[in-house]
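Section 3.1 - Work completed
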Amino acid sequence: MASILVICGGDNAERRVSLSGGDAVTTGLADAGHDAWKLDTADPETIVPPNQPLLDGPVGLAPPDETERATLDRSGWLKLFKTISDHRFDAVFPLLHGGWGEGGQIQAVLELIGIPFLGSDMRSSALALDKIRSHHIAESIGLRVAKAELLHVVPGNVFSFNDAYRAIVTSTIDPEWASFVKESPHQVVLKPNFGGSTVGITISKDEQELHDGLQTIINMGDKPLLEEYVPGREVTVPILGNQALPMLEIVPREGYYDYQNKYTKGMTDYLCPAPVDEMINTQASSYAEAIFAELGCRHVARVDFRLTDSNQLVFLEINTMPGMTDLSLVPMGAKEGGLDFPALMNHFVELVLE
């Protein structure tokens, strides 16, 4: 039996997702026979047992607004540091998504304390969360990626479409790509470069949506990533240890796989294993394991692709701390691979403490 602290919450749009996952993970750890505790970063001095939920109700139809988010200031970081140090846990599961929770900062704190923790280290976490950098790395090892460009804009500015286009032109090194965006705004996607849970994503249909999407990301304080829209099927490959689990296909019943479809039961169908040719499944597993290894990731991740009509796999992103709610994809893949949720939690403990 190991003593495990699950850290969850955070101060970004994925806060409820993290709290829901924290509740599930501590329960799963306890069911597997471990001494499990959890901590909401909004209250870094208090640890609670598995039977005391941190999230009251469902994740919700939309991300939490600013009033729900609790910023971890300098004193909060010191309190968190002290709580972890004083209780002498065997390991920590930092079940945080996006921002400082998945981008290397909390990992740096845990490395400084010297306590084993679930997930990738500081460097790999930072590289993976940075979508444009992970795109470049994926492309460098031979994976097909969507054309993408990070836009350089000034936070707080209000943009017209022409201003948005100027941001694109001044950012891009490919004039043909800039012209394509202006002439075909319905074939591009805007994403927060450091975001997750599809928060802030715009699949543009026209100039106005491109403008509005850019403004949304600027207001979030993130950097806008402009990406070519790739038609096709949405598939994902969970990784456990350093091996790919069965690939899943994600099929929203309406629209695309946004926050509401992702976290509302009955809004999306999950096909596991994905109904694809064995050659495609093998190739997806190989690609996922390759980018996982190239980034230096460890323990767990989820690698997202688009599968085009011509059966080409296009890399989208890698998540080094994927969700662990009852609608999350890694537990689904693990179950198909023979691990129920408590067994998956126990395997996490073994990976961290081996």
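Second construct:
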Amino acid sequence: MARPVQLAPESLALVLSRLEAPAAAAGGAEEPGGHAVFRAFRRANARCFWDARLARAASRLAFQGWLRRAVLLVRAPAACLQVLRAAWARRALRPPRGFRIRALGDVFPVQMNPIAQAQFVPLAEVLCCAISDMNAAEIVVTQESLLEHLMKHYPGIAIPSQDILYTALGTLIKERKIYHTGEGYFIVTPQTYFITNTNPQEHKRARSDESREIPAFLTYLDTESGI
């Protein structure tokens, strides 16, 4: 099992609230962002020249994050964080201008447990991704151009032989994940329209509707035909 990865070190969270809604905000102006609030907080405490330890600790603060509902996350060396805790405990910590500090507390390090991946990517997944990319780039997808695309953009995979590629493409067509026309291979999308020969009633209905105007975005396919 992979070891946990630390994404963010231990930090302090300041839960803030506005003293009053600013006049500019009433006119539709945006609220100050996290970086602006952080700079105001650091500036307010760095100017506490009568408390050299607090001023020095504030100057070493770094912005860690900004959460919704006005929660500011700050980080600093452990000694500096302890100075801020002590200042808050004795009600000496100054809030950013226009705010008051409702609460202050420790946020434990944020860790991530990596999820392991399989060593190999399924060929069907690679083919679908490659065909989708080529369709988006308006590149004609033939078996030859598909192999060239795989060699160029997927250097880490074993390039399939012609027989394996042919079989894999045929399977994807049967699963209705891709389709083939005279213009190459394409990814099946929700807008793709199929005509099959498996249901006589449906086939008869499709023929009876031939006189109707067909939307331009629909693609007609016969899934019984070969590659």
